[in-house]
Amino acid sequence: WAFATLGVPAPQLFDAIARASKKRIGNLKPQGLANIAWAFATLNTPAPQLFKGIARESKKRIGRFKSQDLANTAWAFATLGTPAPQLFEAIA
Protein backbone atom coordinates (compact mmCIF):
# COMPACT_ATOMS: atom_id res chain seq x y z
CA TRP A 1 0.00 0.00 0.00
CA ALA A 2 2.73 2.48 0.97
CA PHE A 3 4.76 1.92 -2.20
CA ALA A 4 1.65 2.38 -4.32
CA THR A 5 0.63 5.53 -2.44
CA LEU A 6 4.05 7.01 -3.11
CA GLY A 7 4.05 5.78 -6.71
CA VAL A 8 7.23 3.79 -6.18
CA PRO A 9 7.39 0.76 -8.48
CA ALA A 10 8.91 -2.25 -6.78
CA PRO A 11 8.43 -5.25 -9.09
CA GLN A 12 10.35 -7.74 -6.97
CA LEU A 13 8.49 -6.71 -3.83
CA PHE A 14 5.12 -6.96 -5.56
CA ASP A 15 6.01 -10.39 -6.96
CA ALA A 16 6.83 -11.54 -3.44
CA ILE A 17 3.60 -10.01 -2.11
CA ALA A 18 1.59 -11.76 -4.84
CA ARG A 19 3.16 -15.13 -4.03
CA ALA A 20 2.69 -14.76 -0.27
CA SER A 21 -0.83 -13.34 -0.55
CA LYS A 22 -2.06 -16.17 -2.78
CA LYS A 23 -1.31 -18.60 0.04
CA ARG A 24 -3.00 -16.48 2.71
CA ILE A 25 -5.82 -14.92 0.74
CA GLY A 26 -8.49 -16.71 2.77
CA ASN A 27 -7.22 -15.09 5.97
CA LEU A 28 -7.46 -11.51 4.74
CA LYS A 29 -10.27 -9.21 5.79
CA PRO A 30 -12.26 -7.37 3.10
CA GLN A 31 -10.23 -4.21 3.55
CA GLY A 32 -7.02 -6.20 3.12
CA LEU A 33 -8.29 -7.74 -0.10
CA ALA A 34 -9.29 -4.32 -1.40
CA ASN A 35 -6.00 -2.71 -0.38
CA ILE A 36 -3.90 -5.34 -2.11
CA ALA A 37 -5.94 -5.06 -5.29
CA TRP A 38 -5.76 -1.25 -5.14
CA ALA A 39 -1.98 -1.25 -4.64
CA PHE A 40 -1.34 -3.56 -7.60
CA ALA A 41 -3.66 -1.54 -9.85
CA THR A 42 -2.24 1.80 -8.74
CA LEU A 43 1.21 0.69 -9.86
CA ASN A 44 -0.21 -1.03 -12.96
CA THR A 45 1.16 -4.38 -11.79
CA PRO A 46 -0.94 -7.29 -13.08
CA ALA A 47 -1.02 -10.44 -10.98
CA PRO A 48 -3.62 -12.69 -12.62
CA GLN A 49 -3.45 -15.57 -10.14
CA LEU A 50 -3.58 -13.25 -7.15
CA PHE A 51 -6.55 -11.41 -8.62
CA LYS A 52 -8.37 -14.71 -9.22
CA GLY A 53 -7.99 -15.42 -5.51
CA ILE A 54 -9.07 -11.90 -4.57
CA ALA A 55 -12.16 -12.23 -6.80
CA ARG A 56 -13.06 -15.62 -5.31
CA GLU A 57 -12.65 -14.51 -1.69
CA SER A 58 -14.32 -11.15 -2.26
CA LYS A 59 -17.37 -12.80 -3.80
CA LYS A 60 -17.66 -15.16 -0.82
CA ARG A 61 -17.61 -12.27 1.65
CA ILE A 62 -19.23 -9.52 -0.38
CA GLY A 63 -21.73 -8.76 2.40
CA ARG A 64 -18.91 -7.83 4.78
CA PHE A 65 -17.31 -5.27 2.46
CA LYS A 66 -17.71 -1.59 3.22
CA SER A 67 -18.67 0.58 0.27
CA GLN A 68 -15.13 2.00 -0.02
CA ASP A 69 -13.69 -1.53 -0.15
CA LEU A 70 -16.14 -2.48 -2.90
CA ALA A 71 -15.29 0.64 -4.87
CA ASN A 72 -11.54 0.10 -4.54
CA THR A 73 -11.81 -3.56 -5.50
CA ALA A 74 -13.97 -2.86 -8.55
CA TRP A 75 -11.68 -0.01 -9.59
CA ALA A 76 -8.59 -2.22 -9.30
CA PHE A 77 -10.05 -4.98 -11.47
CA ALA A 78 -11.29 -2.47 -14.06
CA THR A 79 -8.02 -0.55 -14.10
CA LEU A 80 -5.98 -3.67 -14.77
CA GLY A 81 -8.55 -5.02 -17.23
CA THR A 82 -8.88 -8.17 -15.14
CA PRO A 83 -12.15 -9.98 -15.89
CA ALA A 84 -14.15 -11.04 -12.85
CA PRO A 85 -17.77 -11.30 -14.01
CA GLN A 86 -19.01 -13.19 -10.96
CA LEU A 87 -17.44 -10.66 -8.62
CA PHE A 88 -18.95 -7.73 -10.53
CA GLU A 89 -22.32 -9.46 -10.52
CA ALA A 90 -22.08 -9.84 -6.74
CA ILE A 91 -21.11 -6.19 -6.35
CA ALA A 92 -24.06 -5.07 -8.46
* SS content category: mainly alpha
Largest sheet: none
Compute the separation of the termini in Å: 26 Å
Mean pLDDT: 89
| Strand runs, count | 0
**Radius of gyration over C-alpha positions, nearest whole angstrom:** 12 Å
Strand content: under 5%
- What's the SSE pattern? HHHHHH
What's the short version?
The chain has 92 residues and is mainly alpha-helical.
Describe this structure in words.
By secondary structure, the protein is an all-alpha fold. The chain contains 6 helices and no strands. Helix 3 runs antiparallel to helix 4 and helix 3 runs parallel beside helix 5.
Task: Itemize the secondary structure elements and their pairings.
Elements: H1 2-6, H2 11-24, H3 30-42, H4 48-60, H5 67-80, H6 85-91
Helix pairs in contact: 2-4, 3-4, 3-5, 4-6
Attribute tags:
92 residues; mainly alpha
